[in-house]
Amino acid sequence: MSKVIINPNKKGAKINREIYGHFSEHLGRCIYNGIYVGEGSNIPNVNGLRTDIVKALKKIKIPVLRWPGGCFADEYHWKDGIGPKNARKKMVNTHWGGVTEDNSFGTHEFLNLCEQLGCEPYINGNVGSGTVQEMSEWVEYMTFGGISPMSDLRAANGHEKPWKVKYFAVGNENWGCGGNMRPEYYADEYRRYQTYIRNYDGNKVYKVACGPDTANYKWTDVLMSAAGKFMDGLSLHYYTVPGTWEKKGSATDFSVQEYYTTLKKTLYMDELIQNHSRIMDVYDPDKKVGLIVDEWGTWYDVEPGTNPGFLYQQNTMRDALVAAINLNIFNNHCDRVAMANIAQMINVLQAVILTDGEKMLLTPTYHVFDLYKIHQDATLLESYVESSLIGTDGAMVPDLHVSASEDSNGRINITLVNLSHNQSRHIDLDIQGTNGKPVSAHILTGEPNAHNSFFAPDKVKNEDFKDISATNTGFAFTIERSTVLSVTIG
Ligand code: AHR
């Protein structure tokens, strides 16, 4: 029997719903032939945006969407993507497959997507190859309602009223594809660019500075020391790559060793957040600056036969576990983690949706977001697992992983992962004060490499879980191998 203890009296911070955010880049089939099919398409759409995908994303309550990149952001010139579509500049997408970018999806289309989804836009500006003026004018174009060149241009392009844009990032990976800058140089550039991001008409921009890659602690230290007081958030990028960057491994065909290595590398996110937070604490002890994990997820070799620059990969129960563990980690660090964005929303890396022409399927990762939406805007509760170490040589992991919260109706929500490749666990869920309260649970389970395909799109999906009984101190149940479970009490 493994013990999971939840302490409803020990409350933590609010779990910002933005932790459940997504990322959509002009990369492969994320935007084009993904969410955006164009108004003339036979696939049902509103303003070119696929109706079935919008409906599916609304179901998981997508709270925030990051766009247009990624590496694409630091080569994107937003004025190329406004005005009559047939006059928009055609260019080459140098980062991703060298394909033609016709700019038919631009600022208006993205903000309309956010309106249809009911989510906050998170726009990533261009520092690497853009100017201060260009960035400043983009914010003016989107958010200023008075008389000005950019406001007038927006109205001439058919949108009289300004939008609200809450989140804005000043560059992406400026230590790499965003200009190969040193932290000292970028910190100064950040200070300069952000000065001209104005708050118009009551729109308060939450400014995000480019943060570190993985364990680049020096970057965090320099940024916080030189520019901490000018930012609302600092980003962090960390991907789970089972192998090496040269040979990452297959999305569906993996050994037990690779399975545990993937989970072990995912758990490293916890250490990264703790270490970066400690550095941030030195300059920002009140945790006013949010850590924005705006790229996370699995990164495998592309599916055989697909464009290597499109980063298209399948998604199995292993990915579901990676998502569930990461989301538990973000919940448990919600005093510092203010937002997170899985990479990426559709057809790219750890996607929640895959498409093939008019067909679409929901991946196991989608179903995790569905199970975990109960945590959005809830209050973190202290949770603890008496876990055992399992795995293979060099890849030992705890067998169980948990987070818990209390929502505004006083309901307690627990999300629990069994990391074992082949063994179930009997759970004694110890939680005070819940005697006689109703309990419901849902489960996502399957062989570690189980996945949905266009022939069998519902092979892996969430199901009701009834096999849960009350005890004197809480509840007892059995959780199968490679499984994600959500329990709601009250
Ligand atoms: O998500 C794919 C790429 O990974 C992004 O464009 C970049 O920011 C990161 O390196």
From TrEMBL:
What reaction gets catalysed by this protein? Answer: Hydrolysis of terminal non-reducing alpha-L-arabinofuranoside residues in alpha-L-arabinosides
What Gene3D superfamilies does UniProt report for this protein, alphabetically?
Glycosidases, Golgi alpha-mannosidase II
This protein's pathway: Glycan metabolism
Q: Which GO terms describe its biological process?
A: L-arabinose metabolic process; polysaccharide catabolic process
InterPro entries, A to Z: Alpha-L-AF_C, ASD1_cat, GH, Glyco_hydro_b
Q: Which GO terms describe its molecular function?
A: alpha-L-arabinofuranosidase activity
TM segment ranges: none
Q: Which residues form the Alpha-L-arabinofuranosidase C-terminal domain?
A: 294-483
Identify the keywords attached in UniProt to this record, alphabetized: Carbohydrate metabolism, Glycosidase, Hydrolase
Stored SUPFAM superfamilies = (Trans)glycosidases (SSF51445), Glycosyl hydrolase domain (SSF51011)
Q: Would you indicate the residue range of the signal peptide?
A: none
Enzyme Commission number(s) from the entry: 3.2.1.55
Q: How does it assemble?
A: Homohexamer; trimer of dimers.
User: Hey, which family's this protein in?
Assistant: Belongs to the glycosyl hydrolase 51 family.
Its name, as the record gives it, is non-reducing end alpha-L-arabinofuranosidase
UniProt source species? Acetanaerobacterium elongatum
